[in-house]
Amino acid sequence: MAGSSGYLDAASTEPPHPAARAALLDALDSAWADPARLYGTARGTRILLDRARARVAGVLGVRPDEVSFTSSGTQAVHLGVLGSLRARRRVGSHLVASAVEHSSVLHAAELHERDGGEVTLVGVDRAGRVDPAEFAAALRPDTALACLQSANHEVGTLQPVAEVAGHCRAARVPLFTDAAQSLGRADVPAGWSLLAGSAHKWGGPAGVGVLVIRKGTRWRSPLPDDEREARRVPGFENVPGAVAAAAALEARRVDMAADAARLSALVERIRAEVPRTVPDVEVVGDPVRRLPHLVTFSCLYVEGEALLTELDRLGFAVSSGSSCTADTLRPSHVLEAMGVLTHGNVRVSLPRDVEAGDVERFLSVLPGTVARLRGDLGVTSR
């Protein structure tokens, strides 16, 4: 369904950008050799890899030697979090993170806790936003690392990264920022020490992540030594993937402002129309300080899985709750932390090429779909 008019799950993965597809096909022919070798074909591959690194660095406003390519956004998160904690063990073993971080961050925190570390999770308000003062209060002299996402992956709320970064800087604590949902869609505020991203979220290929470690940030790999990617990421580099990821990120950056305005208007349409046409529904997330392409709402008296299945039958691909726990019955940890309705949750995230007609079709079938499912349960909406 990717690329079709009913695909409304870009927060899970954005359909491939044409720039990524063209760059990938070209690089498959020209960048297949081992970039660590010295012969001509290998040197050509190394040049393309370094050029991709520089292009990503240019978009992010960092130095090329601060950028490493990983095998996924999840690997970038794990390396960033665990590597920073390992390098700062003399400072302490305390980790601070928001309660609504992506599961990859929380799983790294759980591993750290099992290994004897201490974790403090900072709560959020009903919009899913961290209070910078509350986050600052959680920092301690033995805090080795703080983690705050740039924007929430389930409800789209932008986090106060700049304010929290200021508090972390004053406490001499590095800040790790998971920017997977923001890159290519919105600028990430400055002040972070480590950052992770995932190429398939911005229209690049799957299997490519980005880890940025700013100069002066202490970091040590939590994995066995390997000579690849400046000893930060083990394994043979996916050079064609890195080239395609850089091409897509550059292309998205060029169109970012125009895309954001257009998609934000469509999201506003959804935010206004859903509660008007569907009874007993709650639209969640910050209505203003949010990503431009994402909106989440919850429908009382409807199971999220049943609603997604019915929408899929009608030709619409959306997600429910946490996309990383869609195969479990556990409610979303994000929605629980926000204290909002978790029943019948739907996340709509618009790809860059979505049309207004696609959104209108979705809005036209949603009320009847919810009503039918409630009727099957014997529920009559108010």
Automatic annotation (TrEMBL):
Give me the reactions it catalyses: (sulfur carrier)-H + L-cysteine = (sulfur carrier)-SH + L-alanine
What the entry lists under SUPFAM superfamilies is as follows:
PLP-dependent transferases
Q: Does the keyword Signal apply?
A: no
**Which Gene3D superfamilies would you find in this protein's record?**
Aspartate Aminotransferase, domain 1 (3.90.1150.10), Type I PLP-dependent aspartate aminotransferase-like (Major domain) (3.40.640.10)
What cofactor does this chain's UniProt record say it requires? pyridoxal 5'-phosphate
Q: Does the keyword Secreted apply?
A: no
Q: Which UniProt keywords apply?
A: Iron, Iron-sulfur, Metal-binding, Pyridoxal phosphate, Transferase
Q: Where is the Aminotransferase class V domain?
A: 7-362
Which InterPro entries does this chain map to? Aminotrans_V_dom, Cysteine_dSase, PyrdxlP-dep_Trfase, PyrdxlP-dep_Trfase_major, PyrdxlP-dep_Trfase_small
What Pfam families has UniProt attached to this entry?
Aminotran_5 (PF00266)
- Of which family is this protein a member? Belongs to the class-V pyridoxal-phosphate-dependent aminotransferase family. NifS/IscS subfamily.
Protein name, per record = Cysteine desulfurase family protein
- Lineage of the organism: Bacteria, Bacillati, Actinomycetota, Actinomycetes, Streptosporangiales
